[in-house]
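To fix ideas, we quote verbatim one protein's residues and fold tokens.
>
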Amino acid sequence: MGAAGVALAAAASHGGDTAFLGSASTMCLAHAPVLLALYLGHRHFRTATLAALVLGLGTIIFAGDLVSRHYLGDRLFPIAAPVGGSGMMLGWLIVASGAFFRVREV
């Protein structure tokens, strides 16, 4: 996710209209450290695995739609960006809900 964010930032800086690629880069770079942290803490954080799956998938769909719009001139699929954005928001809510569950015993 981090590498994709950097690659998209580089493409945005060299590719004319940067609105789509810049936004895709931002989402990837914003979520990469969170996904790493969720992986590293998954044994101590009950909702980490689900949150990582939902956040990761939401980011991939959202960024994929923006990349598709830039390079192909069309959406990844109808309502892809709202689906991906909703996935990212749901993922963050799952992260927050982890505060209400007991820590796993290791």
Notes: The longest helix spans residues 48-72. Helices lie at 2-14, 19-40, 48-72, 80-97. The two ends are 28 Å apart (CA to CA).
